[in-house]
Amino acid sequence: MHVADRVAGGAWSALAVRAGASRRQRAGRALLAWSVIVMAAAIPTSMSAMGIAFAGMVAGAVIALTPVHRVPGFAAGLAFAAALAAAGIASAVLSGSWRSLPQGSYLTSWLVVPLAAVAFADAAVRQRALVALAAGLAVNAAHVITAWTAGHGPGGVRVDGLVGGALTQGLVAALALTLCAALVARARPTPTAVVMAAGAAIALIASSSRMAWLALSLSIAAVFAVRTRRGRIALAAGVLSAGIGAAVLGALDPSRANALLHGRDGRWYIWRVAGSLLADHPVLGVGGRESFTHAYPPRWQALIEPLDPVPREPRVLHAHNTLLAFAVEHGPAAAIAYVAFIAAILRGCWRARRERPLGWRLIAPATVAWMAAAQFNHVAGRTQTAFAFYLLAGCALALAGSTGAGAPGAGAGAVGPAERRREGEGPRVADAAGDLRHR
After folding, report:
1. How many domains does the chain have?
2. Is 297 domain-assigned?
3. Single pTM value for the model
4. Contact 424, 399 (CB under 8 A)
5. Assigned domain for 72 exists
């Protein structure tokens, strides 16, 4: 047995063990798989660890010559990156300033989707990643509880998470709770599922994020819509979730709850200013995020200051809406390309929904949560939140069998007849701590 097999636990039924695999391929796939597991643990806890894990994923895929281009969404993601790069280069040439080039995270973070899809083709990797995510959420929950004990807590005081601010923590928690709701169907969830849900719930409460509560409510409605196909049940579940969120906000952060009820939100001003800038630059945008931050204050003074003499966010980093942010920074084509990327992922899971429904049951509510949050913040522009959703999207593609399956030996992620039989139609969905397959 090779060293890579011993390190990985010898559990590479779909990922690393195939006839003719070389030591280089085995080592590369082991690095890819363990980097995905590290990223799952780092999402609620450490931005630095996420970056290291992403580098390990890319290195592992390159070492193993993994055919990630076969994963649904890869071509659309590449087109999205190309649209950003083309707009940035054109703006840089026209303006003579290289600050118009897109951020590196814009161009590369989407790669987590195909890389994770290939790694999650192995059930053992999925299981270990879920345990790692639950552990990370538990560590973050301990941090939140410690902060509350030290003097933070009810009374309008929000607690930031280990990996970022309150908004980031809230959305990561909402996505984790969506994962639990989409894939846990047993009356007695496993300890991993309980720890994941509890840690995510504590993080969501601590964030006081209205955006995250809205995203969770809509995703819960989507979970029931996909699973039961009954609109009334889905609507009731969504309303119940929203009611719980409103009650929690009202009890712990009454000022934010009151602002929500009366529609007071600085985003209205931000969207108006960003829309005005987009109207002036309808093709290439203003030329990147740095250009946006420079152009925003004078436009705010011209449009908003006469309307509201009370200063309210006269300087922001982005448009607080993902699609609007891409459009105003790099042109409408970039926003359209991003929508096409998300649509390609959905299509990959939708096509396999009859044979492998788990992928669709996960990606549908996760995308609902993601796009709902994207209307109120530039979630795709934050690496912390982008990696969280992209990891779930990769898991959904793996559960759907959309990892570039082909003939035996076609590459990592290939799924043969035996694997398909093991994941065929079944009466119930596995719990979140298991291998996430039908049994």
Report:
1. 1
2. no
3. 0.86
4. no
5. yes
Query: DSSP string of 307-364?
Result: T--S---SS-SS-SSHHHHHHHHH-HHHHHHHHHHHHHHHHHHHTTTTT-HHHHHHHH
Q: What residues have CB less than 8 Å from 274, skipping those under 6 apart?
A: 292, 296, 319, 320, 321, 324, 325, 328
Give CA separation, 44 vs 161, 191, 261, 358, in Å. Answer: 7, 18, 30, 24
The answer to whether residues 195 and 134 touch, using CB atoms and an 8 Å cutoff, is yes
- Token pair, residue 114, equals 């195909």
Domain that holds residue 379: 3-262+322-422
**Looking at the domain assignment, is residue 429 inside a domain?**
no
The Cα 435–Cα 112 span in angstroms is 20
Helices 210-228/357-374 angle, 10° precision: 150
Q: What share of the chain is helix, strand, coil (3-state, %, to 5)?
A: 70, 0, 30
What tens digit of pLDDT does each residue of 208-233 get?
888 899 999 999 999 999 988 788 88
Q: Does the residue 435 lie in any domain? A: no
189 or 244, higher pLDDT? 244
